[in-house]
């Protein structure tokens, strides 16, 4: 367990993409239905814990904690996090960070905004959906060779090395993509240690690598 890792909205995004690729049927996105499949069950519990952490306020007082408990039933679903529909429930003023990023990037590339510059919830949902689509494709590329055996025939090993060369070109180049997605999910840029998530939000203690190894 990496004690020093800080979990953010980016971790939630990546875990959702990975989980939904493993479990494409939305009817199965319930903890009670996945207990016989530990790799998917633990991932869903991680997603639920991170969602609760990012979408419910942390508080040290009794009233604050009680309010957080009431918010649990209003947490966005995986479908809402994939589609961006959760954006409609937030005040547009919460999105000053991503709006500034959008306008600055457009100005840097075009010299001007070319329009009124007004950004609505609908605009942000469109932005989020397109960036999420790209993030999914990027993750597919970065993990294209996961699970390939080093004892495979030489031709297959060649394809692994060649495609790894291409994929490695993306390393360190998508930080702003992650930043934009994270600012939409969590405008406050919250961070959590694994210990905090386990103590306050029931984040699973299982090491997902060991789970995958024992339940392929």
Order of helices and strands: EHHHHHHHHEHH
Q: Could you give a short account of the major beta sheet? A: 2 strands, antiparallel
Biggest β-sheet: strands ordered side by side in the sheet: 1-2
Shape: globular
Count of DSSP-assigned helices: 10
Structural class: mainly alpha
Percentage of residues in DSSP E strands: under 5%
Polypeptide structure, described:
- By secondary structure, the chain is mainly α.
- Helix content is 58%, strand content 2%.
- The chain contains 10 helices and 2 strands.
- It has a two-stranded antiparallel sheet.
- The chain is globular and about 60 Å long.
At a glance:
This protein is mostly helical and 216 residues long. The chain contains 10 helices and 2 strands; from the N terminus they run E-H-H-H-H-H-H-H-H-E-H-H. Strands 1-2 form a two-stranded antiparallel ribbon.
Q: Keywords for this structure?
A:
mainly alpha, two-stranded antiparallel ribbon, 58% helix
Could you outline the blueprint of secondary structure elements for this entry?
Layout: E1 6-7, H1 9-22, H2 38-55, H3 62-71, H4 78-83, H5 96-110, H6 121-142, H7 154-168, H8 175-185, E2 192-193, H9 194-201, H10 208-214
Antiparallel strand pairs: 1-2
Helix pairs in contact: 1-2, 2-9, 6-8
């Amino acid at each position: 367990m990496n004690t020093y890792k800080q979990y953010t909205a980016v971790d939630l995004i990546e875990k959702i993409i990975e989980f939904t690729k493993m479990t494409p049927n939305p009817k199965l996105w319930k903890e009670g239905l996945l207990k016989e499949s530990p790799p998917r069950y633990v991932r869903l519990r991680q997603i639920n814990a991170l969602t609760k952490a990012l979408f419910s306020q942390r508080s040290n007082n009794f009233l604050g904690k009680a309010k957080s408990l009431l918010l649990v039933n209003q947490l966005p679903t995986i479908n809402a996090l994939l589609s961006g529909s959760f954006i409609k429930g937030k005040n547009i003023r919460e999105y000053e960070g991503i709006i500034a990023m959008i306008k600055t990037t457009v100005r840097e590339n075009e010299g001007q905004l070319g329009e009124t510059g007004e950004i609505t919830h609908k605009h942000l949902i469109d932005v989020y959906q397109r960036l999420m689509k790209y993030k999914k494709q990027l993750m597919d590329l970065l993990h294209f060779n996961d699970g390939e055996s080093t004892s495979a025939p030489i031709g297959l090993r060649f394809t692994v090395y060649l495609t790894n060369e291409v994929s490695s070109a993306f390393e360190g180049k998508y930080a702003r993509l992650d930043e934009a997605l994270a600012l939409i999910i969590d405008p406050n840029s919250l961070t959590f240690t694994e210990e905090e998530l386990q103590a306050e939000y029931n984040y699973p203690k299982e090491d997902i690598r060991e789970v995958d190894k024992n339940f392929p």
